[in-house]
Amino acid sequence: MSILNLTEPLVFDNSIESFEYHSYKPYVKSFNFNDEIRIPINQQDLYVLPSASSLYIEGTITAFNRETKAEVKSVLFTNNLCQSVTNPILHLFQDIRYELNGIEIDKIKNPGVTTTIKSLVSMNELEASMSKLWGFDVNGTKNTQGTFSVSVPLNKILGFAEDYNKIIINCKHELILLRSNTNLNSVKLNANEYIDNITISKIVWRMPHVKVSDRERLNLLKCLERDRAIQIAFRTWDLYEYPLLPETSKHSWSIKTSSQIEKPRYVIIGLKTDRKNVANKDMSHFDHCNLRDVKVFLNSVYFPYERLDASFSAEKFAVLYEQYAKFQQSYYNRLQTPLLSPQDFKDIAPLFVINCSRQNETLKTGSVDVRVELNCESDIPKNTAAYCLILNDSVFEYKPLSNITKKIS
After folding, report:
1. Angstrom distances, CA of residue 263 to CA of 66, 198, 284, 400
2. What pLDDT digit, counting tens, does each position of 209-241 carry?
3. Measured over all CA atoms, what is the biggest interatomic distance in the chain, rounded to whole angstroms?
4. Class of the CATH domain delimited by 14-228
5. For the chain, what are the domain ranges?
6. Confidence (pLDDT) at 47
C-alpha cells in the first residue's frame, strides 16, 4: 500500500520549461460590416496549444434616445435581465473558423447563437462565475462607459479547442472571423433608443507557446522526422437555422445528410419568435412556442424512443429539464451541475436536448439523413425561427514535416 511506502522518491514534472502567451494581430486594422478578419501564425518551429488560447476584443458602442437625441450613457447588451449565459460580442460575427496548414479544421456559423446554446447546456456555476471576463455574463452586461473589452477562451467558441488539448507542432495556424452585417443582435435597447454603431477597435489572438525540456524536445523531433500522421479528434458544433417556420402545429425539417464519422451525437432544438435583428428584444432568449414533442430521425431510426409529451403551459416539462440536466454527465462524464433552475429553463432557455450518442447497427453503413419533427400544442407563432445545434464527431490528421492536413471521412 502507498501509505507504507516510506522510501518512495519524489517526482517533479519538468517536461515543460515555460508557458508563455504571445499576441497575434490580424492583417487589417478596420473591422467593418462583412469584413473578413484573418489572424495568422506563420512561424512553424513552434509548439503551440490552441485549446488554451483566447480571443481578445476591444471596442466602443454608441446609442441615442429617439426623442431627446441625447447619447445613451448606459447601454444594455443582450442577456441583461436574466440568469442566462450568452456572449453578446460574438453576435458581431457571422462565422468563425480555424485553419491548419490552409485546411479548415473547424467552423461555427452564427457564433452568438451557437455559443449561447452550447454554454447553456455545458456551463456549471463555477464556470459561470468567470463568465464576465469571457463576455458570457450570467447576470447581464451593462455598458456605462461607451467601451467594452472581453477575452473569450477559444474552447468556448470551437469544439476543436474544447476537445483537443494537445500541442500542435510545426504547422501554420490561422483564425478567420467574418464580421456580421448588423449590430442589432448584440444589444437590448429600450423602445425609445436606437443603436448608432458598435465599433471594434482591436482583435488579438493570444496563443500560448510551450517550451519543453531537452528530453521532450528529442522525442518531439523524432516524431517530426518520422512524419507520421497525428490524428485530431473532436466534436464539432454545427448550427442549422430555419429562418421562418410555417404557422402550423406540426412541421418536418430535413436538416442534412452526414457521413458515418460525422453522425450526430447530440441534437439541441430551440425556437425564437420575432427576436432576430430586433434591438428591443433579447436575442439570447428562447421561446417554447408551446412545443410539445421533438423527434430526431437518423434515417428511419428516431430519438427519443418515447414521446416527450411536454406542456409548458401546464408546467409539465420535468422530462425536458431532466434531459437538459443530464447533458453534462453524458457529454463530459462529470456530475450533473445544470446552470439553470427549472423556472429559468422554462422562461429563458426551453431547449430540447436529444441524446443520439448510442446508435444501433443499422446506422453503421452508408450516409445518414438527419430530420427533425416538431409537434406543438397550437400553431407556431408568426416570425418564429428554429435553431438546431448538432454535436457530431470529426477526425482530421496532419503530418508535421510535410505539412499535409486532411479530413478522415
Report:
1. 50, 39, 28, 28
2. 999 999 999 999 999 999 999 999 999 999 999
3. 80
4. mainly beta
5. 14-228, 232-395
6. 95
**Domain 232-395 is of which CATH architecture?**
Sandwich (2.60)
SS3 content of the chain, % helix, strand, coil (to 5): 20, 40, 40
Average pLDDT over residues 236-250: 94
**Residue 118: which of 176, 80, 162 has the closest Cα?**
162
Quick one: angle between helices 318-332 and 111-122, nearest 10?
90
* CA–CA separation, 50 and 98 (whole Å): 10
Q: Which residues of 364-388 are buried (b: 16+ CB within 10 A; e: fewer)?
A: eeeebebbbebbbbeebeeebbbbb
Per-residue pLDDT reduced to its tens digit, 72-118: 777 767 653 333 445 688 999 999 999 999 999 999 999 999 999 99
Q: What are 2's strand-pairing partners?
A: none
Q: How far apart are CA 89 and CA 97, in angstroms?
A: 16
pLDDT score recorded for residue 365: 63
Q: Which residues neighbour 313 within 8 Å (Cβ) at sequence distance 6 or greater?
A: 290, 377
Find cell 425539417 and name the residue.
253
Q: Greater confidence, 270 or 74? A: 270
Query: Which whole-number Å values give the CA distances from 98 to 108, 160, 162, in the listed order?
Result: 9, 9, 13
